[in-house]
Structures are given as C-alpha cells and as structure tokens.
C-alpha cells in the first residue's frame, strides 16, 4: 500500500502540476487569444482607416477630374471661338495678299513701260528743245538776213532813186 500511496501521491503531484500547467496554459491561451483579438481589431481599424483615406483620395481625384473636364470643355469652347474669329480674318487677309501680289505683278511691267516712256519723253523733249533752239537760231539768222536784205534793197532803191 505504501507503493500505492506513493503512486497516488506522485499521481496527485502530477495532476497538480498538470493542473498548474493547465492553468498556465489556459492563461497563456487567454493572453494569446486576447492578443489575437487585439491584433485583429487593430488590423480591422487600420483597414477601415486605409479605406477611409482611399475614399477621400478617390473623391479628391474625382473632383479634380471633374474640374479638369470642365476646364477642358471651357478651353475647347474658347478654341472654337478663336477659330471662328480667326477664320474670316484669314480669308480676308489671304484675299488682300493675293490682290497685292497680282497688283505687284501688274506694276512691274507698267513700271518698266513707264520708265521706258519717261526715257523716250526725255529724249523727245530734248530733241524738241534742240530743234526749237535750232529754229530760233535760224529765225534770228533769217531776221538778220531779211534786215540786211531790206537794207540792201533800200540802199539800192535809194541809189536808183538818186539815179533817176
């Protein structure tokens, strides 16, 4: 019986140790479970915070995209207005430039013709003045000859008159 008693005692000690171990394991398991729950709660809290920030960023991006689209539409309208304003002016400017080019092409031969005729005019005017001077000289010479002839005739007439 002594052996039995010792065995029982050993068994009780083992059971006690096992119970203490069991309590320790149970406390550790509880601590582990609580840490797991805490970690899970922290993780879920962080996930929710990340989702919130993600939604805020998404809203900001969508707002900026909306403003960008609105600005794009506004710029497109301004561009169209500029095109409409610039287009008639381009046509008018092109038409006027074309007319200027045509006038320039017509002016060149007219200018050459004018220069040629101006040269001819100067030559004709010079010839006219030359002939006019020549005529005046001849007229003067004629007048002198006539005067001289008249004087000679008068002299002859006087001589004839004296002879009569």
Automatic annotation (TrEMBL):
It comes from the Eukaryota. It holds the Pfam family Transcrip_act. Residues 1-36 are annotated as: Disordered. Keywords: Coiled coil. InterPro entries: GORAB. Signal peptide: none annotated. Residues 40-78, 114-155 form a coiled coil. PANTHER family: RAB6-INTERACTING GOLGIN, RAB6-INTERACTING PROTEIN GORAB. This is RAB6-interacting golgin. The lineage of its organism: Eukaryota, Viridiplantae, Streptophyta, Embryophyta, Tracheophyta.
């Amino acid at each position: 019986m002594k052996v039995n008693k010792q065995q029982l005692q050993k068994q009780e000690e083992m059971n006690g140790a096992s119970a203490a171990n069991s309590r320790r394991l149970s406390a550790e398991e509880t601590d582990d479970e609580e840490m797991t729950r805490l970690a899970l709660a922290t993780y879920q809290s962080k996930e929710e915070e990340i989702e919130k920030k993600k939604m805020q960023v998404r809203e900001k991006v969508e707002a900026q995209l909306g403003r960008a689209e609105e600005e794009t539409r506004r710029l497109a309208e301004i561009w169209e207005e500029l095109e409409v304003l610039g287009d008639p002016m381009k046509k008018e400017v092109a038409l006027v430039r074309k007319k200027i080019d045509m006038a320039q092409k017509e002016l060149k031969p007219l200018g050459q013709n004018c220069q040629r005729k101006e040269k001819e005019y100067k030559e004709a005017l010079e010839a006219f003045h030359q002939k006019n001077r020549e005529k005046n000289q001849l007229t003067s010479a004629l007048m002198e000859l006539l005067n001289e002839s008249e004087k000679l005739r008068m002299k002859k007439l006087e001589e004839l008159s004296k002879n009569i």
